Amino acid sequence: MIENVVLQAVTDGTEGIIVRGALSQDRSAIEVIMSTYFLDIEDIPISDFVVALLGQRVLGAACMCKGKVIEVHSIAVHPNHRKKGIGRMLLEALTSQLTHNTLLYTRTTAPMFFERTGFQKLEASVKSEIWDDCASCDKLNACTQSVLCLKVR
Ligand SMILES: CC(C)(COP(=O)(O)OP(=O)(O)OC[C@H]1O[C@@H](n2cnc3c(N)ncnc32)[C@H](O)[C@@H]1OP(=O)(O)O)[C@@H](O)C(=O)NCCC(=O)NCCS
């Protein structure tokens, strides 16, 4: 569960945007943003999300899942508001929930964003070692998702 930490942006581009833990009333806005990019969030509790808001409007959302490893499951920013620093704010809100030296993983088709925000790319072969669903996936050999990892500071 994401604690109700609030990040307030003051830099150009993200001025006025805040990031907080998601509330039940944010679910439909989160679903709309995630579905824009075909990201599936069906089984994830709302309490695992953070949202970026400008006033009442949800401009982005991200969620973290804790299983065998801790993983950024999904992150998305409204198409009209990308490249303004909102994705970075969402990641900071997630990592602020983790203790020093925790490893945070992601499987993603957007490796450049994660590299720019401090993640390091791992060999694709680790997918099947880390995740059971990858190990049992019949499309693993054709999978285009990169694996990256961040050690939380
Ligand atoms: C990936 C995503 C969440 C990034 O959000 P964003 O608000 O645009 O990212 P930011 O503005 O915070 O960018 C942070 C850094 O990453 C870089 N970056 C962001 N998207 C990038 C991309 N697609 N390719 C290369 N670099 C990228 C930015 O230039 C910035 O670098 P800088 O700080 O050195 O200038 C957003 O582009 C998105 O919603 N993409 C579609 C959904 C998706 O692919 N999600 C990831 C898979 S779950």
Report on this model:
The protein is of the alpha+beta class and 153 residues long. It has one domain: Gcn5-related N-acetyltransferase (GNAT) (Aminopeptidase, 3-Layer(aba) Sandwich), CATH 3.40.630.30. Helices cover 23% and strands 30% of the residues. The protein contains 5 helices and 8 strands; from the N terminus they run ββαβββαβαβααβ. It has helices spanning 27-36, 86-95, 111-116, 126-130, 132-135; strands at 7-8, 17-21, 49-54, 57-66, 70-77, 103-108, 120-122, 146-151. Strands 1-2-3-4-5-6-8-7 form an 8-stranded mixed sheet, with helices on both faces. The longest helix is centred in the first third of the chain and has 10 residues, at 27-36. 31% of the residues are buried. The model has no long low-confidence stretch (mean pLDDT 92). Residues 37, 39, 74-77, 82-88, 108-110, 112-113, 116-117 line the site of coenzyme A.
TL;DR?
With 153 residues, this protein is an alpha+beta fold.
Quick one: CATH superfamily?
Answer: Gcn5-related N-acetyltransferase (GNAT)
Oligomer: single chain
- Give the low-pLDDT segments: none
What coarse outline follows from CA principal-axis ratios? globular
Name the average pLDDT: 92
Estimated radius of gyration: 15 Å
How do the SSEs run, as a string of H and E?
A: EEHEEEHEHEHHE
Q: Looking across the biggest beta sheet, what order are the strands in? A: 1-2-3-4-5-6-8-7
Helix content estimate: 10-25%
Q: Specify the number of helices.
A: 5
